[in-house]
């Protein structure tokens, strides 16, 4: 497979979590602009057959000037080096039924603007 779990350890079957876990792609041909590994966040909701794929926008760059500007203004869209191992979703990415009544119990894939980075 192309996905490498960045965490060690496993969760008990049936246990739910609000945290999305960072996953890196193993392919060295798919990287962020600075050469760091491309990745995405995944939250599995055991027993759910529903999936929410969240693709965050973040402009693009097409020259040294525009890429330098993007890196200065939104570095997390250019490099995975500062990404946390886990993060909590809010709004449509929340696991809380009160905050997200329609999608709280769905499996979630979030690219954080950097699933596939290219110039």
Explain what this protein looks like in three dimensions.
The protein is mainly beta. It has one domain. Helix content is 8%, strand content 22%. The chain contains one helix and six strands, in the order ββββαββ. It has one helix spanning 64-73; strands at residues 3-5, 19-25, 39-43, 51-54, 86-88, 107-110. Strands 1, 2, 3, 4, 5 and 6 form a six-stranded mixed beta sheet that branches. The chain starts with a strand and ends in a 9-residue tail after the last strand.
Outline:
Belongs to the pectinacetylesterase family. Notum subfamily. The protein has 119 residues and is mainly beta. The chain is built from one helix and six strands; from the N terminus they run E-E-E-E-H-E-E.
